[in-house]
Amino acid sequence: MARPVCERRLCAPLSGRVMMPAGMPACALEEIVLGCDEAEALRLADLECLYQEAAARSMGVSRQTFGRIVESARHKVADALLNGKALKIEGGEFSVDEERRYTMKIAVPARDGMVDEHFGHCKEFLIFRSENGTLVEEPAIPSPEDCGCKSGVASTLARAGVTHLVVGNMGEGALRVLQAQGIAVVRGASGPARTAAEAFAAGTLADSGCGCAGHHGDSGHGCGHHDDYRHPEE
């Protein structure tokens, strides 16, 4: 007996659409159907550039299942583009996760309740969940030893449901790793960690765009991470 297909979560519904070669009547074309779940897999993997672990978590499936979905989707798109077929997006096994679209969980690297200037040296991550316009503090996540991006802390935060990281400074390598885990990063915060989280939730704190400086050598000092870091999946 075949195993039932689990519904895959989508962050937003996709309207049906058809793409076809220019100048060709639809009746003359072979049609390929790309499921909405397959389109979502392409969005997460190829537009959002998430690691498969993070993309699978977003869709509520295993990493192996996500790999099969995105492989099928890429094959269908390549077939349509290279062989001049119509590509229609519709159907698939999915549900729209309306609640998750409006849920925000903020992590702040901190020491003694203050934003730690360097993400890689923090004592813990204070966690705040946005709920009905206010922030509810959740149990903190202890910082692993050698907290930089190589420690796997990005994956730990993502599995805890963190959607945003509000920090003081961060190098580009760590920034890329966190973004690939589906975590948006806001740099330039300072002062009390809760105040920084509240400012971001209220829309008064934006990313400064400034990363760490003076730690691009081989010594490993500074922020605890390097710009040449690569995730094991790459």
Give a description of the structure.
With 234 residues, the chain is α/β, with parallel strands linked by helices. 30% of the residues lie in helices and 21% in strands. Helix 6 (172-180) links the parallel strand 10 and strand 11. The strands form 3 sheets. Strands 6, 7, 8, 9, 10 and 11 form a 6-stranded mixed sheet that branches. The chain has 2 domains: 8-98, Arc Repressor Mutant, subunit A (Orthogonal Bundle); 103-201, Dinitrogenase iron-molybdenum cofactor biosynthesis domain (Nucleotidyltransferase, domain 5), CATH 3.30.420. Residues 214-234 have low confidence and may be disordered.
Give a brief rundown of this model.
This protein has 234 residues and is α/β, with parallel strands linked by helices.
What's the helix and strand layout?
Blueprint lengths: L7 E3 L6 E3 L11 E4 L1 H12 L4 H8 L3 H21 L2 E4 L4 E3 L1 H4 L3 E7 L2 E2 L8 E8 L2 E9 L10 H7 L4 E3 L5 H9 L3 E3 L6 H9 L33
Parallel strand pairs: 1-5, 3-4, 6-10, 10-11
Antiparallel strand pairs: 2-4, 6-7, 6-8, 8-9
Helix pairs in contact: 1-2, 1-3, 2-3
